[in-house]
Structure formats: C-alpha cells, structure tokens
Write a structure and sequence with these properties.
Blueprint: E1 2-11, E2 14-24, E3 29-33, H1 40-48, E4 55-59, E5 66-69, H2 81-86, H3 90-108, H4 115-133, H5 139-149, H6 166-180, E6 184-188, H7 196-207, E7 212-216, H8 220-226, E8 229-234, E9 237-241, H9 245-280, H10 287-298, E10 326-337, E11 340-351, E12 355-360, H11 366-373, E13 380-385, E14 391-394, H12 408-413, H13 424-430, H14 447-458, E15 465-469, H15 477-489, E16 493-497, H16 501-504, E17 510-515, E18 518-523, H17 526-533, H18 553-559, H19 568-605, H20 609-612, H21 615-652
Parallel strand pairs: 3-7, 3-8, 5-6, 6-7, 12-16, 12-17, 14-15, 15-16
Antiparallel strand pairs: 1-2, 1-4, 8-9, 10-11, 10-13, 17-18
Protein name: Probable ATP-binding protein YbiT
Region (Disordered): 542-567
Organism: Saccharicrinis carchari
C-alpha cells in the first residue's frame, strides 16, 4: 500500500536516519519504537506528506486516504463539537446538497422524455448510490457513538470547541479522523490526553479497524493490545519485527545476544588465523598454509554488531525527610467552578509511605484535587498536611511552563540553591543533558526533553510527598521504566495522576477513583481495580448502596408503632407489604438480568462497522441502555423499601 524507499533525513549536518526502507501493507498494525529524538514523529510526518525527506522516495496509490493525528496541534476550530466532527462527512454533505438541488430541478421540469431530463435522473441515481456507499444518512449515529466513546457527554455536542481544553479539542480532531475512515491511520501519541475508559474504547476500535495503523506511543499496554508489528528506529537505522512491542523487546534482546556471540566467535577465529600467519610467515615449509590462511581471512564476511544507543536516565529521588504518620487528610472537601460542581464533601486520608493513584475520566477532578493540595485553587472544607510534610509537585503542564527564552543550564541555575549548585551539570548529565546540549534553548527541546528538564527541577530539593500529575507524557518507554523504578524506590509518600496502566502496575498499592463528584478508595493495584470495575469491557459500575430514601407512607406510619402494640391485622399488613416489595425486587432483578444480556450482546455487535452505522440498531441499543438505567434506579428504590420493611418486621418478631 505504502512503500518507503531509502529515506534519509538530515538537519544541519546531523543525520537523523538514513536509507530507511519498508512497506506498509493494507491491514498492518505497526508500532514505531525508539528513544525520544530517534525520529519517530519525523517519520510519521513524512508518511503524512507534511514533511519532505532529504532523500529517498515515498510511493502510494493516488486514491489512498490518510488520517494523521500529530502529537502537538494548533487549534483554529470555531464551531461546536458536532459541527467540527461533522466535517469528516464533507463529501457526503456535498452529495446531499447536490441531490436536493437535483430534486428541485426535476420537480420543476415537465419534459419527461427529453435527453436532459433523463440525464438528471441518471445523475440523481448515481449520487444516491454514492451516498449509500459512503454510509448514507447514518453518519449522525456514527458521530454520536464515536464522541461518546471518546468521553463526550450528549450535552457537550452543541458546545463551542473554544470552551474545551487543548486535550479535549484534540479528541474532537481524533473523532473527526476516525469518522473519515482512512485507509492509513498515522497516530502520534494519541493517548496523552485520553483517560483509561477512552483509551480502552480506542483500543477496541483500532483492533477491529479494517485499515492500516502506524502508531507512536509510549503506552506499552496500548501498543501490546493493538500492534502486531514493530519498527524500531535506533542510531539512524530501522529494525523490522513481525511482533507486538513486548515480544519485540524479547526478540531484540535475543538478536543482540546472537550477534555478540557470533561476533566473539569470529573475532577469536580471526585472531587465531592472524597469529598463525605471523608465526609461520617466513618459514618456507609453511608458505602454502600461510597463503591459504591469508586468502581465507580476506574472504571473511566481517560480522557487525548493530549499534546501540545506551544513554538513559539515571533517576534517584533524594531521601525523604522524616514526617508524621498522616501525610494528608481531607475533611468535607468540595470544589465548584461557578455552577458546575466537580467534587462534593470528600473525606480521605493518605498515610506516610503510601503510593496512591488518582484515576478517573477527564474532568472528574483528579488534577483539580492535586492543585487544591498545592493551594493553587480555592475550595471549601479542609485539606490538612501532616507534621513536617514537604511537597514536590510535577504538574500536568509542567513542561509547558518552562521559560522558552532560557537555556537548559539557565533553567536550573535560576532555581538551584545551596550545595546543589556545585552538582548542576552532574544532575543534568544524569538526565541526558551533557556537553553542548546544556546550552540548548528550551524553545528547541522536544516534548520528552522538556519533561526530563522539568523532572530535574523536581529533584533540586529533598521532599517527602511527591505529587506527579501525568509525569509520563512524552517520555519514551525506557525512560518511563526508569522513572517508575525511581518512584518505587522513593521512601516518601506518592500520589500519581495517570492513565498509563503499565506505569501504575506494581507501583501503587491504593487507587482513588474520581467519579460522580466523589473520591472512592480501592485497596490494591491498578489491574485489580480494573478487574473489579470491569473497565476493560467498558461495562460498569457496581451498584451503589442507596441512602437517604424513605419508605412508602403506609409503612412509615406503621413503623412508628411498637411491636407490642401492633394488632394481628397490622402485623399481617406489614408482612404482606414486605412480600409485595420482595416481588418487586425479584421482578426488577429479572428485568435487569435480561437487559444486561441484551446490552452485552449489542456491545459485541457494535464492534461491527456495519452494525455501528445502522440507525435502527443504534436506536435499539440506546433504548436498551435507557431501560437498563431505569431498572437500576427502580432496583435501588425497591431495595431501600425492602430493607426498611424487613427492619420493621424484625421489630415485630
């Protein structure tokens, strides 16, 4: 489908990569691997046609449709969310307008036998056929399913995109690309602004997509779940593996070991041969053997070991100063932005040494809580830090807050104090800023380099409470693994706001889930939490125990009497009422079970693009979900009535 031939890219005398050749087949799911700065994003830009290589060619059919999502986007959209996404169907909208004009013209004509009239009929038929091929009028259902999958609520559809953050506007563009159904997806770090639920929906979409995907991502779990082929860029060359990322890592290690073994064996053979030649070079009786060995040596195809870039971060947080047992305590904490309430009356406690994850959908208050702890935003209630607790904070946009006019060294020089100033260059070297690179301006740094520089600032002062808000965005997989180990080794308290399952796995021992204005504690790791909540299939949540609801009036009145004063008839009436509520609960549970089976079946069918584009199916799907939600609410109400009725019955017995 797409053929890349001997591509080379040079920047001011520096060769990024050279003689790169590979083929993208129609249904390939390819992960581009490599360190920050290896050239992954540049290669995607060349495939998308937005950058020209220094040399080499790119060949693909003229009618191929490419969808490209860059890592950093400039937003100039001005319409509503729906309007911007609907642009994906520009061709279809034009056909609809053309058909409307043709219908008007045909209605006004009476020359039914004329050649021109027949030509209009032919045009109308042709355009109707093309609309059917493109999905017809069902695109509205496609838009709704895609937007909801990416985390938008129905009431967001008609809001101007200017009201949303950059991350949400990126989702709008992603939805638009998905709905264009390109032959080739080019995705550069698409999960950076997605929450766990949206990532899992996106995973399912890409796994079942019929076209080709070339993906750059530092989310190892995301890569493993989607890709079946990995192209690694290292030291200006590429290595192509027909394997997922984790399998590629194993194969790459095996290849290096085999190369080194073969190289050592050959070097030993060459050394032995050269020693023989040198020893018997001047002996006439050995002349034939010597000449034979010289010829043999000249014909040896020398084994070369693939060059490796072994530079990596050396992260170690300073020892945490001693603090009290309680690190942070929240009492009745609430936060609203105008009329929009984000958090409502939250109580929680984080103790010394705990490593905690804040997770939940975007907009549920994770970053808001981090900023409240840092006293960057106001709130009601109390957030109380423990004795001698000192915070180190890495904000989600920390890398973007750096002064672009300063150099790397100046950035650290402006904040370093005391003895650490004598070790600034050593510290920068540990984060892969050495030699002339410390003089580079922040404005020319890549996203990964900026993140590393922001991390250096975090290490300048010993703290005992780390708050890390999306610290892995823009870090390559190797750097993320080293950061994860450093956080695991840190002997203080840690709160991590992240959607990266692989990063959180084995790191945290408690999860706080942000949902419905609340913050719920779950003990255990991230995959235990996901298993309990069944987020992998996006069908959750567990039923919440209702509270604060009242009994029917007749039961409430009877409950005021003591058991000793109840007559036989009154006791009989309460028992009858209990049975009636039990029957309601049972009937409701049967309906829920039936509806859950229907919805689960339709969830699977929804993966079929034909089904997902069927308006009648979408209506049935929505109707079933609405009915399930209604029955869930009924079940809650009936269960409250049953619990209170049974309590009254116990008082009688």
């Amino acid at each position: 489908m797409v053929s890349v031939n001997q591509l080379s890219v040079e920047f001011g005398g520096f060769t990024l990569f050279s003689d790169v050749t590979f083929l993208v087949n129609p249904k390939d799911k390819i992960g581009l691997a490599g360190k920050n700065g290896a050239g992954k994003s540049t290669l995607l830009k060349i495939l998308a046609g937005v950058q020209t290589p220094s040399s080499g060619t790119l060949s693909c059919p003229k009618d191929i449709k490419v969808g490209y999502l860059p890592q950093h986007m400039k937003h100039n959209d001005t319409g509503t969310v729906w309007d911007e996404v609907e642009k994906a169907f520009g061709q279809l909208k034009k056909l609809e307008d053309d058909i409307a004009k043709l219908n008007i013209e045909l209605a006004e004509r009476t020359d039914y036998e004329s050649e021109h009239y027949l030509d209009l009929i032919h045009q109308l038929s042709d355009k109707n056929d093309r609309i059917s091929m493109l999905g017809g009028a069902n695109y509205a259902a496609d838009i709704e399913v895609t937007l909801k999958g990416l985390g938008f609520e129905r009431n967001d559809f008609n809001r101007p995109t200017s009201e949303f953050s950059g991350g949400w506007r990126m989702r709008v563009q992603l939805a638009r690309i998905l709905l264009q159904k390109p032959d080739l997806f080019l995705l550069d770090e698409p999960t950076n602004h997605l929450d766990i639920e949206s990532i899992q929906w996106f995973e399912d979409f890409l796994k079942n997509y019929g076209g080709a995907v070339v993906l750059v991502s530092h989310d190892r779990a995301f890569l493993d779940n989607i890709t079946k082929r990995t192209i690694e860029i290292e030291m200006g060359k590429i290595y192509d593996y027909k394997a997922s990322y984790s399998k590629y890592v194993e194969l790459r290690k095996e290849r290096k070991e085999q190369q080194m073994a073969a190289f050592r064996n050959q070097q030993k053979m060459i050394e032995d041969t050269e020693k023989f030649i040198e020893r018997f070079r001047y002996q006439a009786t050995k002349a034939v053997q010597v000449q034979s060995r010289i010829k043999q040596l000249s014909k040896v195809d020398r084994i070369e070991v693939d060059p490796s870039d072994n530079a990596s971060l050396r992260i170690k947080f300073p020892p945490a100063p001693h603090s009290g047992v309680i690190t942070l305590q929240g009492n009745q904490v609430s936060k609203s932005y105008g009329k929009h309430q984000v958090l409502n009356q939250i109580d929680f406690t984080i103790e010394r040494g705990e490593k905690v994850a804040f997770i939940g959908r975007n907009g549920e208050g994770k970053t808001t809580m981090a900023r409240m702890i840092m006293e960057e935003v106001d709130y009601t209630g109390e957030l109380k830090l423990g004795h001698q607790v000192k915070i180190g904070y890495f904000a989600q946009n920390q890398a973007d807050l750096l002064d672009e006019s300063l150099s790397v060294l100046e950035t650290i020089d402006h904040v370093a104090v005391g003895d650490i100033r004598l070790k600034m260059r050593d510290l920068l070297g540990a984060f892969m800023f050495s030699g002339e690179t410390v003089e580079k301006k922040v404005s020319v740094l890549s996203g990964g380099e900026r993140t590393r520089l922001a991390m250096v600032k975090l290490l300048l002062e010993p703290v005992n409470f780390l708050i890390l808000d999306e610290p892995t965005n823009h870090l390559d997989i190797r750097s993320k693994e080293l950061l994860k180990q450093a956080v695991k080794d840190f002997d203080g308290t840690v709160v991590v706001v992240s959607h990266d399952r692989e990063f959180l796995d084995g790191l945290v021992d408690k999860v706080y889930e942000f949902r419905n204005k609340k913050m719920k504690e779950h003990l255990g790791g991230i995959y235990e939490f996901l298993a309990r909540k069944k987020l992998e299939s996006l069908r959750e949540m567990e039923l919440q125990k209702p509270s604060g609801k009242t009994l029917p009036q007749e039961l409430s009145d009877q409950g005021k009497k003591t058991a000793s004063k109840l007559s036989y008839e009154e006791r009989k009436e309460i028992s009858k009422q209990v049975k009636k509520v039990q029957q309601r609960v049972k009937k409701c549970e049967d309906k829920i079970a039936k509806l859950e089976k229907e919805v689960a079946k339709m969830d699977i069918e929804m993966q079929d693009p034909v089904k997902a584009a069927d308006t009648d199916f979408i209506k049935t799907y929505q109707k079933a979900n609405t009915a399930l939600e209604t029955e869930m609410k009924n079940w809650e109400q009936y269960h409250v009535e049953l619990e209170q009725a049974e309590e009254e019955k116990k008082k009688m017995d």
